[in-house]
Amino acid sequence: MKFATKAIHAGVHPDESTGAIMTPIYQTSTYVQDGVGNHKGYEYSRTQNPTRHALEKNIAAIENGNFGACFGSGLAAIDCVIKMLNPGDEVISTNDLYGGSYRLFKTIFEKYGIKFHFVDMQDPATVEAHVNENTKLIWVETPTNPMMNIIDIEAMASIARKAGAMLCVDNTFATPYLQNPLDLGADIVMHSVTKYLGGHSDVVMGALVCNDEEISKEMYRIQNSTGAVTAPMDSFLVLRGIKTLHLRVQRHCENGEKLANFLVTHPKIDKVYWPGFPTHPNHEVARKQMRGFGGMISFTMKGNHLEDALEVVKKVEIFALAESLGGVESLIGHPATMTHASIPKEVREKTGVVDSLIRLSVGIEDADDLIADLTKALA
After folding, report:
1. Any idea which fold 245-378 has?
2. Which of 77, 222, 283, 327 could lock 206 by a disulfide, CB 3.0 to 4.6 Å apart?
3. How far apart are CA 352 and CA 359, in angstroms?
4. Are strands 115-119 and 296-301 parallel, antiparallel or unpaired?
5. What CATH number has the domain spanning 3-242?
6. Is 320 helix (H, G, I), strand (E, B) or coil?
7. What is the pTM for the complete model shown?
8. Per-residue pLDDT at 349
9. Mean pLDDT across the stretch 151-163?
């Protein structure tokens, strides 16, 4: 079954009692049992809910996985993965990491004895140099947020296998439509479902997908034990959103390419970060492991003045100044003061997150209108 068909049909069946084509919203906390232990597969909605169950199967299918679990946010999904580790374990991650992930690793889990290494993952040799007997997890984000760096998933999978470690890939930016990390050797795929999978800026949710049965047992144990699950209504909304994921991401990619080519020729722009450029670092890796280059773009202003960046994000009219990404509407953000403000300035700037850096989540509006909006803001 190909992607578009799976996005619409996987995990979803007409309601047996009514024939409703859409999965009902099972807005219930508990389920009546005919006798002790004699139930219809559902006991309590923290453990399992039919609406959430359908979504979990759907997301697993579009990632070519066997097991899926949904959580109350992307960070709750990451939290589940780190809780699979033990004190003394070590994690290798990219130095260009989403600020929320960095904050979770450093301020929550580090005090429990888990050690984190943040390295430049664009060169696999750098990662190999940090592997030791305590390495239990390699955490990859590709493309990275916000520098759009590309990390070779197959190379990371090879390193993880040799180390006896798990490889987890944050696939939020690429989506399953453009990239399938499990097929490239990853053990777990993570999504901030809030973004492209939901696609309409109306849900906060996270998800994990895997193929290994032992990992799945631990994933479901932690999901049930900690209770950071998503609600039935949110599950319904994401099931609806995924039905158009392939169509939306196609348009995100088309618009992203047009805007990237516009920005790279603008006299006030210094650098444009978009993996579709042949000059982009690891562009060939992106061509190998992705089926498109997405709608996320970052750029810096000449002179690197904070005031210039803040003026641009304030002047746009179609782009909305807001955190998050992946919705149908275009968003603009200033990573240094928004999504990555929790990362110390000296650490942030080493990876390229300077004061003039602006990040775009290019939506599915008319590209000409988006270019006109940026032209006016940059004038």
Report:
1. Aspartate Aminotransferase, domain 1 (3.90.1150)
2. 77
3. 12
4. unpaired
5. 3.40.640.10
6. strand
7. 0.96
8. 87
9. 98
Distant-in-sequence, close-in-space partners of 10: CB < 8 Å, separation ≥ 6: 1, 57, 58, 61, 62
Each domain of the chain, given as residue ranges in start order, spans 3-242, 245-378
- Residue from 196, 174, 193, 171 nearest 182 by CA: 171
Count of CB atoms situated within 10 Å of the CB of 227: 12
Residues with active-site annotation = 46, 98, 170, 195
Residue among 72, 103, 61, 6 nearest 226 (CA): 72
The 8-class DSSP code of residue 280 comes to: S
Which DSSP string corresponds to 104-156? IIIIIIGGGT-EEEEE-TTSHHHHHHH--TTEEEEEEESS-TTT-----HHHH
* 235-247: b (≥16 Cβ within 10 Å) or e: bbbbbebbbbbbe
Residue 282 to residue 360: CA distance in whole angstroms: 21
Q: What per-residue string of b and e applies to 144-175 under the rule 16 or more CB within 10 Å gives b?
A: bbbbbbbbbbbbbbebbeebebbbbbbbbbbb
User: Closest Cα partner for 75 from 339, 360, 350?
Assistant: 339
| Cβ-Cβ contacts under 8 Å for 37 (sequence gap 6 or more) | none
